[in-house]
């Protein structure tokens, strides 16, 4: 109880009045691999193994029980969660043909299943769960690792792990609660600290600006005495939270902006992701005096690419 009160008092004064970022519990790649829930994925010509979330939910009742228990524990502490099983069903209903974004001249970007999952769920934080049921005679216990991952940057922001006491209970959800109950509040302090930073300084994304080979222009072309690349940087300064971003790479053909801080919500209260933010830059480049045809592509929630000179 004391730790829970500390979490509440830790939040900034205006935080309770704002919408909290949302969370989704996801089984880790390690758990999926150890339990045989993997499938082949073609990543731009390279075959990779990726989690088969749909089959995991259909076949593993322990997974459902574990995620349901964590959802309940987090909800009791005021953290909204997305139901991963429902998100997976939404993904399954989409056409496979829509899984790839490509340009008319053949360029494109492919997203992995976890990127698609993040984008469909619109969750800010992924709670990655790894667990194992340990048996010693008739007694059982649960060993777990819980990692809080920023869905936009893939940075770990909180972690908890441990093993519960042995019990005769056959309910894995009860065993998990016994293992996690004295650790989840410290885990939530890490989440709260990250949330406070998001509200104060904006969420972090990556934005790239490239050009198609077929386009005659480049980022050194001048408009009213200023190079296009400089004008794009000026736009970033004016539209990021507190003007915070880093220009990691700048050439005549490409700009890479990292640690780009964008607002969490627009004026209507809708969450802003990399696509929403970059769409405004896309419109800026499409308008006079540039009038540059361009294509916007995204990867997950936190990466956007604008390619100049074609659709």
Describe this structure in words.
The structure is a single chain. The protein has 311 residues and is of the alpha+beta class. It has two domains: 18-198, ABC-type transport auxiliary lipoprotein component (Rossmann fold); 203-308, no CATH class. It has helices spanning 2-10, 29-34, 53-59, 61-76, 84-93, 113-121, 172-180, 184-201, 228-239, 274-286; strands spanning 23-27, 38-43, 46-51, 81-82, 100-102, 108-110, 125-136, 139-150, 156-163, 203-211, 222-223, 226-227, 246-250, 255-262, 294-299, 303-308. A hairpin with a 4-residue loop joins strand 13 and strand 14. Helix 1 (2-10) packs parallel to helix 8 (184-201) and helix 5 (84-93) crosses helix 6. Pfam families: DUF6175.
The CATH C-level name of the largest domain is Alpha Beta
Strand line-up across the major sheet: 4-1-7-8-9
Q: Structural class of the helix and strand makeup?
A: alpha+beta
Q: How is the main sheet built?
A: 5 strands, mixed
Helical proportion, percent range: 25-40%
The CATH architecture of the largest domain is 3-Layer(aba) Sandwich
Count of distinct strands = 16
Distance between the termini: 56 Å
How many structural domains can be distinguished in the coordinates? 2
Pfam families: DUF6175
InterPro entries: DUF6175
Please describe the structure with a list of short key phrases separated by commas or semicolons.
single chain; about 300 residues; alpha+beta; Rossmann fold; five-stranded mixed sheet; 10 helices
């Amino acid at each position: 109880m004391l730790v829970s009160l500390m979490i509440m008092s830790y939040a900034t004064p205006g935080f309770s009045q704002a919408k909290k970022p949302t969370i989704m519990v996801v089984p880790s790649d390690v758990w999926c691999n150890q339990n045989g829930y993997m499938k082949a994925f073609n990543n731009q010509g390279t075959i990779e193994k990726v989690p088969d979330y749909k089959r995991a939910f259909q076949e593993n009742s322990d997974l459902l029980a574990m995620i349901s228990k964590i959802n309940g524990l987090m909800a009791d502490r005021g953290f909204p969660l997305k139901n991963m099983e429902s998100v997976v069903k939404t993904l399954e209903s989409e056409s496979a043909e829509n899984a790839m974004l490509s340009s008319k001249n053949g360029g494109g970007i492919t997203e992995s299943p976890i990127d698609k999952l993040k984008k469909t769920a619109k969750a800010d934080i992924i709670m990655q769960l790894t667990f194992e049921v340990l048996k010693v005679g008739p007694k059982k216990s649960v060993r777990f690792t819980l990692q809080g991952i920023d869905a936009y940057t893939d940075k770990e922001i909180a972690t908890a792990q441990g093993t519960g006491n042995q019990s005769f209970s056959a309910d894995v959800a009860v065993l998990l609660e016994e293992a996690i109950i004295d650790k989840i509040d410290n885990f939530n302090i890490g989440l709260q600290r990250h949330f406070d930073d998001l509200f104060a300084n904006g969420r972090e994304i990556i934005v790239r600006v490239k050009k198609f080979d077929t386009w005659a222009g480049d980022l050194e072309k001048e408009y009213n005495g200023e190079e296009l690349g400089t004008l794009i940087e000026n736009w970033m300064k004016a539209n990021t939270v507190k003007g915070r971003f880093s220009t990691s790479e700048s050439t005549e053909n490409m700009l890479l902006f990292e640690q780009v801080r964008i607002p969490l919500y627009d004026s209507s209260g809708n969450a802003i992701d990399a696509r929403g933010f970059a769409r405004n830059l896309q419109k800026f480049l499409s308008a006079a005096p540039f009038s540059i045809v361009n294509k916007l592509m995204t990867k997950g929630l936190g990466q956007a690419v604008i390619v100049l000179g074609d659709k």
